[in-house]
């Protein structure tokens, strides 16, 4: 670029600055002029000379509504302090319980292991090996790191346990009818616990620890009018569910006392809580087991040993078998009953079975709770420092316990579909055709 070109650019830049200063001065003077004119018009023209349509929208009023609501809420709280405290306590308790349940579900539950990583915790399950509850509990406890033993009375039950093909789910032969055999079996079991074990060749030996005994009596009960249930059924139920459970507990008590192991008793709760008609066997058996558990808790409590009772509701056992309800309400076919008994009880029995099915007491239309809830509760009862005495687990275990405790028995019977039967009409001999048609309808319902 030559010197003449540079001189020309300097001259142009000076003119450009002069133009900018001139235009800026004009704009500033125009703004001051318009402001003066607008001020003069505003002072001279009277207020409100524009029509409503031409006026601009007024600014929104200040938001003082929230403050008014706050004052009203404070006044209401001061007038209703008791109700406010109840509402706050309700929501606070619900929030705390919800938070605890969420933490429990996320908590990792694993059995303690030896220093070399081997399993050391032993749990014994006493119940029918083919029961869905026993199968599910044994598999879950084994996955959590326990060595699980299932009490078996004969070789057939041992084969069922071996059929699960799990190395740490083992049968424990114990025939309580054989007194000497029971003593020898318990001595071998106790020696096995006291003997040092090596997880693999060259590993440091470790001792096993007996964590707990879980009692799960057979959960299937006969139902029907008392006069249709023979004494042999009561005898079988009491022997298999009560006396056998007591005998197994007695056999394990020395080992339980030595290792400070815990005892868990699992019983159905819905039918025993409601105590409806046609379920005398289950009501009597569960009441006997609950009484035995209470006495056992008092005795072992003097030794610092915890005894927990599990009141079970309904569970979905579809992944370990067919859907099963722990308190079955299906009874014998009413056709096999005597004619007089059918006239007196059949209609109420069929009606109660139908109502129980629709309201969730059986699993035909209701799957029940997940077995994971039972698994977590059993693990917590075995491992917590201070476990609860009574655990209500499963769908309906809490609700029906409250209903049975607070609702009158007559109202419970009405809810179950039980109605009063006129003895005059029931004892009257019906015509053959009417009787055939009526019982044909009942048979179709059953």
From TrEMBL:
It comes from the Eukaryota. The keyword Translocase does not apply. The chain crosses the membrane at residues 82-100. Keywords: Membrane, Transmembrane, Transmembrane helix. InterPro entries: DUF1776_fun (IPR013952), NAD(P)-bd_dom_sf (IPR036291). This is DUF1776-domain-containing protein.
């Amino acid at each position: 670029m030559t010197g003449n070109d540079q001189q020309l650019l300097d001259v142009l830049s000076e003119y450009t600055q002069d133009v900018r200063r001139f235009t800026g001065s004009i704009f500033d003077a125009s703004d001051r002029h318009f402001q003066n004119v607008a001020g003069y018009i505003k002072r001279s023209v009277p207020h409100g000379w524009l029509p409503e349509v031409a006026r601009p929208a007024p600014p929104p009023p200040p938001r003082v509504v929230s403050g008014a609501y706050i004052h009203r809420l404070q006044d209401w709280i001061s007038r209703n302090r008791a109700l406010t405290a109840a509402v706050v306590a309700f929501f606070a308790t619900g929030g705390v319980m919800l938070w605890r349940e969420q933490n429990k579900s996320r908590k990792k539950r694993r059995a303690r292991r030896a220093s070399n990583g081997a399993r050391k915790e032993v749990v014994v399950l006493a119940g029918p090996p083919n029961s869905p509850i026993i199968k599910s509990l044994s598999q879950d406890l084994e996955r959590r790191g326990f060595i699980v033993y299932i009490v078996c009375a004969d070789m057939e039950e041992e084969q069922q346990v071996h059929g699960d093909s799990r190395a740490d789910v083992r049968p424990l032969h114990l025939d309580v009818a054989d007194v000497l055999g029971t003593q020898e079996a318990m001595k071998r079991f106790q020696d096995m616990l006291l003997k040092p074990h090596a997880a693999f060749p060259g590993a440091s030996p470790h001792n096993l620890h007996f964590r707990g005994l879980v009692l799960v009596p057979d959960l299937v009960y006969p139902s029907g009018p008392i006069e249709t249930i023979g004494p042999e059924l009561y005898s079988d139920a009491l022997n298999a569910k009560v006396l056998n459970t007591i005998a197994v507990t007695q056999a394990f008590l020395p080992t339980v006392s030595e290792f400070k192991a815990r005892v868990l008793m699992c019983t159905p709760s819905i039918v025993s809580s409601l105590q409806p008609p046609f379920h005398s066997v289950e009501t009597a058996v569960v009441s006997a087991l609950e009484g035995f558990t209470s006495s056992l808790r008092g005795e072992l409590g003097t030794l610092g040993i915890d005894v927990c009772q599990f009141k079970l509701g309904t569970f979905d056992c579809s992944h370990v078998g067919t859907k099963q309800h722990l308190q079955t309400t299906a009874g014998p076919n009413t056709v096999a009953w005597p004619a007089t008994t059918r006239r007196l009880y059949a209609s109420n029995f069929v009606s109660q079975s139908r109502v129980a099915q629709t309201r969730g007491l059986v699993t035909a239309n209701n799957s029940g709770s997940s077995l994971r809830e039972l698994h977590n509760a059993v693990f917590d009862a075995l491992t917590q420092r201070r476990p609860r005495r009574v655990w209500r687990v499963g769908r309906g275990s809490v609700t029906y316990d409250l209903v049975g405790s607070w609702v009158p028995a007559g109202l419970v019977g009405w809810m179950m579909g039980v109605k009063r039967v006129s003895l005059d009409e029931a004892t009257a001999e019906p015509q053959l055709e009417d009787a055939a048609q009526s019982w044909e309808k009942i048979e179709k319902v059953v």
